[in-house]
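User: Predict the structure for this protein chain, please.
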Amino acid sequence: MVRFPDGWTAMIDNGGCFGFAGKDQSGPWSRSILPWLRRHDLANPNVVILSHGHLDHTGGSGAMMKECNVGQWLVAGRADRDLLPDSAKTSVQFPVQGEVLHRWRQWSLVILYPLPNLPEEFHENDYSIVVALQKDNRTQYLWSGDLEEGGERLLLHGGGPGGRTRVWKAGHHGSNTSGSQPFLDEIEPELILVSCGVGNGYLHPSHGLYVVHGDTIDVVRTDLEGSIHVEFAKNGEIYWKSRDRQGHLSPIP
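Assistant: Here is the predicted structure, written as structure tokens:
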């Protein structure tokens, strides 16, 4: 969930289904996500971004359409199939590279990917929407869905994230199919956030390159540390905290 100081909000994916049994199951949505959104007055986001069409990212969509007032749905790949049949009544769009979803002073939320005319043989993961939170056109926080090496390569060739990224929500739950060396060399993250389930059968995360520069990159995992909160201060510092830890990134000169 992304919240700007003016109150505008965007939600990137909305949780999975228990056992991937079907898109009409509420699963974690009813158990934890919706109560959290209501507790923080975030249950009616301006935009919901469904990065791609896999149920661990879109499984809460059916329930969310019934229980929340969403201003706009942005979808990629086959994600629109996980919306309810009456989704035609809602605002459902496929994003355009370079589209600015919201701007507040020097801050903006921008679509970087998918590129137009992606190869039809691409795996669904490589259709993932890539979103950047930018300040003065410099990326501060990057979400890349389940984008894998092939998609990362196209992203770099198509303009990329524009250099260094301070915070990166790791691609594909920290799998070694994402975070290719050229991509990491481009974004040089200071903080990596990994979203993965406790004891998941996919053995996520599995990427050793997160410490390619030694032990200088902070890695925070939801399976070990629960929810992660990141806040950007006016002076350029970035503060983050999880259930058991907290830290900050100093301003860039």
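The chain has a mean pLDDT of 87.
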